[in-house]
Every structure is written in structure tokens, then in C-alpha cells.
Amino acid sequence: MFARAVFALAAAAIAPAASAQGSTADEIAKYRAALREGNPAELWQARGEALWREKRGPKHVTLEGCDLGLGPGIVKGAYAQLPRYFADADRVMDLETRLVWCMVKLQGYTESDAKRNVFGSGNDKKSDLEALTAYITSESRGVPMKVPLSHAKEMEAYRVGEKLFFFRGGTHDFACATCHGEEGKRIRLQDLPNLMTAEGAQKAYTTWPAYRVSQGELRTFEWRLYDCFRQQRFPELAFGSEAAIALTMYLARNANGAPYDGPAIKR
Amino acid sequence: MIDRRRRTVLQSGGSATLLGLLAATGWLKPGEARAEAWNKGAFDSHSMPDAMKALGGTDSVVPSKDIVFFQTPEIAENGAVVPIGITSNIPKTESIAILIEKNPNLLAAVFDLPGGTEPTVSTRVKMAQTSNIYALVKADGKYYVATKEVKVTLGGCGG
Amino acid sequence: MSDPMKIRASLVGDSTEVKVLMSHEMETGQRKDAQGQTIPAWFIQNVVVTHNGKTVLAAQWGTAVAKNPFLSFKFKGGAKGDKVTISWTDNRGDKRTDEAVIA
Fold first, then answer.
1. Looking at the complex, does the CB of residue C59 fall below 8 Å from at least one CB of chain B?
2. Which of A45, A225, B143, C48 sits between 20 and 30 A of A193, alpha carbons compared?
3. Which of B70, B72, B78, B149 to mutate to test binding with chain A, by most A CBs within 10 Å of its CB?
4. What is the CATH number of the domain that holds B19?
């Protein structure tokens, strides 16, 4: 009898909250839809395209010879097939590590110079990598995600990424799965995508990079993972690290099939 | 008390000083060659009565159902970027101004629309918190206003 | 030197629809930096849009316009190939003018 009473109370408590959440979610969806046009990400795209075509670095060469997986200089659709194994580097790379590779190999930058300012802030500290990422990803808009999983290192990266997704650690004993492993989770009014379902993984992965309104900056997937680690009170996720690439591999592959929809605009 | 005063301001009748205020504020007549005037008094105002006065709207502002908000959400996920669209169906609309009640500075923007330009604008503003948005329209020398509340949420995670 | 504006001008019936995305910090003057110093206000104050030499829109903006501002409006007339010119001036006296062709 007690159990029944508790159940009735619980049901009564959930029902109004669910409907309030429903209409709030609708309104937030309208807000997001209204922002789709005139996305400031286009400013980063334009700058990125200019950087791609500009002769830069000690070797004074453009990035147009960079092979993003589909052949040198082929940009269209490249992001939909990343991360992937690259024979010349003998490792799996995501877009950003591949861009750093090309900046080093083709343009003669040192790796530390190429990674000097990965996450930009304001007009004075713009990040070239963010601009380049915005441009390259925009050339995959509408292309179905088709991340390969054939090379042994690609499969290893996926397995490691999966393990990391469930790995609990940090001061709060969080794993990615803690927030992203179940339906219906949210933080305040932010619905958290359930990355365990194909639909959740697709919607989440295909909308990065995105112009983050709260920061006034375009942020990439490397940034998203970096910031999740920060919020989980994990040690800092190094840019372009094996861990970052492995997690990206896991989540990108899980998004396969869905059309890539970025750069997007987000809170 | 402040609310009552605001409502009074919005409802009060016409005044001869209106034209004088307009001339002093640099609110341009439509079709004029543009000088790059910036109405500092209006943009520095911190209260609805002051902002309305600086824009020449205090003495006779009529609430109007012919001013319509479009693509303006009920809830903004982040106050840094809030889309606002305003269409005025009042004949001879000359300008549209956007005021945000609870912002540190009320006046966000003023759009002068010369003849031939449609009386509709869409832009994005910053909102410090949940607040009323006022769309102030000047048409044929008279002032009209419409109000819409936009809620600004406190964010959670990144999204 | 700011990034170029992204301007789209297209014919919709017998009107031209103009949509522009500008690159600008639109700093409110309310924020403080890491040292506790107020970051000075830096924002676009005036926007002028012309078509065939005629002003079709003139706007005065304050700090409450969002960063990287977006603006959309329509004017009657215009033909494919016509130029639409957009200029902004900010409170530091910086200016920027870009143009687009009506498509």
C-alpha cells in the first residue's frame, strides 16, 4: 500500500513536469530554428577558406595540397569520413590533428606553432584552426556520415574511445556515460543527448563545430571534448591527443548514416 | 510605483513639445541625406520615460496591435543572442526602435526606413535577463508601441 | 581590420531582401577582464545601406545589439545585377563598407 502511494505521488509529480518540459523544449527549439539563418559561423568559414588558399609558413605554401583522406586538396565530403587512418602518419587522425599535420609537413610550421592558439578568444586572439575547421566542415554539409572502420588502428581507436566513454574518474566519479548514457537527462534547461542511441549520437555529432552564442566563438569537436573533461573535473584533455581522437572516433562512427549538418549554432 | 508611472507615460495624450523634442534628438526625417548622427541621449537612457523622451515618444505613445513580432522566441536559451523581428502594419511607418526593459541601457537599436523600404526589420539583441521587449514605431509623425516578453533561461551545459 | 561582411541580396517578388552578417565584437562596456579592469565599450553605432545611391536603411545601434550582428530587411525595387552597399561606423571611428550584387 505504501509502495502504491509512493508510485501515485511519483506519477503525479512527473506528469506536470513532463508537459512543462515539453512546451519549454518546443520554445527552445523555436529559438534555435530562428538562429539558423545568419549564423556567425559563416564568418569563420570565410576566414578558413582564405587561410586554406593562402601561402603561409616558412615554406610559403598553401594548404591546398593537404590530403584529408579523399586525396590531396579534396575538401568536399572529407569531414564526413573523419577520423580515419592515414598511412603517411601511420595513425588515426581527426580533422584538427590532420590540419596540424599538413601545416607542419606542407607549410613548415613546428607542431607547437601550429597548435599555439587552438581555441580563439575575441578579435585579438583568433584561432586559425577553428577557422580552417569551420571551412572544411562546411564542405561536408548534407553529406552522410561515413566514418571508416576497416584498418586495425581505426578499430583500436573505436574500442579505446568506447572504454573512455564509460570510464569513471575525476573528483565527481563521472564518466561521459553519466550524463550521456540515458534518455531524458538534462542540466537545468539543457537536454543532454543520449549518445548511446544512434539518433542521439547523430544529432550531437553532426552539429559540431558550432558557433556558441554564449561565448561568441566558433567551437569545434576537440573543444567540446576538452570542455566536457573540464566540467567532469577530469585532467585537461590535451589537444589532438590519442584520447581525444579515440573518443571522437567512437562518437563520429556512432553517427554514421546521418547527414552532416554543420557548422551549426548553439547556446 | 515605477510600473504605474511607466503605464501613465505610455497612455498620456499629445503635446506641443513633441516636435521640439524630435528636432533636438536627431531623429531623422525619412528620405533625408544621412548625416552620421548617433542619439547619445537615447542610448544612454536608463529608464523607459527617459528613453521614450529622447526618442520623442513620451508624450503620445499608443499601444498598437498593428505592430507584430515575428521570429521572436518566447524563451531564449542564451541572452547573448536573441532574435527579434518586427513588422509594422501602420501606414507611413518611418522608423522602428527596439527597447529592452530590463537591460542596463534600454535602447538597443533604431531603424530609419525611407520611403520604399518595407516596415519590417529582423536583428539580434542581447538581453541581460527575462524582460519586456518594446517595439516603438514612428508612423506619420505619431508614435506607437507593442510589447512582448522574452524569457531568458539560465543555461546548464554546452549543448 | 575586421572580417568582411557576409551580404546576401535577393529579389523576392518586386522587392529586394537584404540579409547581412557583420563581424564585430559589440563589446558592451559592462564586462571586466581577468585583472578586474572594465573592457571598454566597442560597438557599431551607425549602419547605412544604399542601393543605386539611395539610402534604403539607416540604423543607429547601441551596445545591446548582439556580437557578430545579423540584420535583415526588404526594400521595394532593385534588379538582378544591381549593387547594394552596406557601411558601418563604430564608436572608435572604425568603418567598414562592403557591397553585394542582387541575385
1. yes
2. A45
3. B78
4. 2.60.40.2470
| Structural domains of chain B, count | 1
Residue A238 pLDDT class (50, 70, 90 cuts): very high
- Facing residue for B155 by CB, picked from A24, A190, A231: A190
User: Most distant CA pair in chain B: distance in Å?
Assistant: 54
Q: Which chains touch A (3 or more CB pairs under 8 A)?
A: B, C
Residue B28 has pLDDT above 70, yes or no: no
Asked if the Cβ–Cβ distance from C67 to A43 is below 8 Å, we say: no
C6-101 under CATH 2.60.40.10, yes or no = yes
Q: Check pLDDT > 60 for residue B158.
A: no
Taking the domains of chain C in order of start, what are their residue ranges?
A: 6-101
Which CATH number characterizes residue A81's domain?
A: 1.10.760.10
Beta strands in chain B (DSSP E): 61-63, 67-70, 75-76, 82-88, 93-100, 107-112, 117-125, 131-139, 142-152
pTM score of the predicted model: 0.84
Question: Does a structural domain hold residue A16?
Answer: no
**Full domain range(s) for residue A95:** 35-266
Check CB contact under 8 Å for A187 and B156. yes
Question: Known catalytic residue: A179?
Answer: no
Domain with B132 in it: 2-152
Q: Is the pLDDT of residue C31 over 50?
A: yes
What DSSP designation does A173 have? T
Minimal CA–CA distance to A240: which of A59, A119, A88? Answer: A119
Residue A42 and residue C23: Cβ atoms within 8 Å?
no
